[in-house]
């Protein structure tokens, strides 16, 4: 069964990267040009941090994520969004994740704070494993259809 890859952006803090690398599946760092300028070959999940700290002029969505989503191929194949945030950001907590989900019509699959806890990683793995099964079932139905 295909393991749905997670494309993520992580700043120099490495918090999102640390979380992504514990998911036991293919992960692609959008901070790396080769991934940011690529197109996906099937369904994928986005993992993005939110940085807005209350300044209305600040954009919450990292530029690398925006660039990747400019591709119509990548936008069509997106199946869900996950977010990392900091509760200190108040009403802007998880804003990038929620904004992308709203604009794309895709669900928010999971949200966690900073680098996440071991429970967050385990729960996220379960969600992604369930997603893999659902996508495989949908693919089999479409092929039989």
Care to describe what's here?
This protein is α/β, with parallel strands linked by helices and 145 residues long. It is 41% helix and 18% strand. It is built from six helices and five strands; from the N terminus they run E-H-E-H-E-H-H-E-H-E-H. It has a five-stranded parallel β-sheet with strand order 2-1-3-4-5, with helices on both faces. Strand 4 (78-85), helix 5 (95-104) and strand 5 form a beta-alpha-beta unit. The longest helix is centred in the last third of the chain and has 27 residues, at 118-144. It is globular. The chain starts with 5 loop residues before the first strand and ends with a helix.
Total beta-strand segments: 5
Question: Which geometry do the CA atoms define?
Answer: globular
- Classify the helix fraction into a percent range: 40-55%
Low-confidence stretches: none
- Which whole number gives the mean pLDDT? 90
As laid out across the biggest beta sheet, the strand order is 2-1-3-4-5
Q: From the alpha-carbon coordinates, what is the Rg to the nearest angstrom? A: 15 Å
N-to-C CA distance: 19 Å
Our count of helices gives 6
Structure at a glance:
By secondary structure, the chain is α/β, with parallel strands linked by helices. The protein has six helices and five strands.
Q: Main traits of this protein?
A:
alpha/beta, 6 helices, single chain, globular, 5-stranded parallel β-sheet, 145 residues
Fold topology:
Layout: E1 6-8, H1 15-20, E2 27-29, H2 33-36, E3 44-49, H3 63-69, H4 72-77, E4 78-85, H5 95-104, E5 108-113, H6 118-144
Parallel strand pairs: 1-2, 1-3, 3-4, 4-5
């Amino acid at each position: 069964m295909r393991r749905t890859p997670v494309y993520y952006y992580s700043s120099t803090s490495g918090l999102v990267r640390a979380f992504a690398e514990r998911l036991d599946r293919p992960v692609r760092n959008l901070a790396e040009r080769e991934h940011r300028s690529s197109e996906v070959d099937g369904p994928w999940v986005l993992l993005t941090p939110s940085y807005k700290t209350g300044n209305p002029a600040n954009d919450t969505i990292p530029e690398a994520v925006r660039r990747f989503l400019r591709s119509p191929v990548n936008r069509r194949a997106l199946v869900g969004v996950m977010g990392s945030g900091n509760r200190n950001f108040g009403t802007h907590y998880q804003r990038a994740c929620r904004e992308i989900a709203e604009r794309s019509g895709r669900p928010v699959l999971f949200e966690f704070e900073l680098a996440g806890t071991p429970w967050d990683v385990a729960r996220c793995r379960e969600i992604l494993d369930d997603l893999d099964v659902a996508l495989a079932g949908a693919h089999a139905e479409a092929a039989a259809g």
